[in-house]
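Open question from group meeting: does this chain pack into something compact, or does most of it stay loose? Before anyone orders reagents, we agreed to write out a predicted structure and look at it together. Recording both the input and the output here so the notebook holds the full record.
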Amino acid sequence: MDLELRDELLRPYVSDGGTPGGISRFKGVPPNILEKLIFHGFVHLGKWNSCPGVQELFLPFLLRHPDFTAHGYAVSKERKDSRITIEGIECDASMTIETVIDFANMFRQADDFALSPSRARCWYD
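Structure tokens returned:
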């Protein structure tokens, strides 16, 4: 696995400096970058905790609504389990009623859920 490529793809979206041997949080990852991260095998795709997983839940929605972006964390490349976990998606723009309804139907079971005509965010623990 080319962890330098992983870090290069994520660098513009990292929202903190990370912790040595720990994790780095990111937000604002657009669907096209998420697809590259998935293609290269960097993203954990399956179910975890109360989340059905990237492949089943987040990616189909992001492909239908490319104004949304992903957020989550990347485990440090110094660790054996250097993975990327997508914890949720968000959008800070005006949305159509159809998009609002689609978001509500898909993510209302998230651990954290916020929705208005101009802001949507979900997060899974």
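Observations to bring back to the group:
The beta strands are 23-29, 69-75, 84-91, 112-116, 119-123.
The mean pLDDT is 91.
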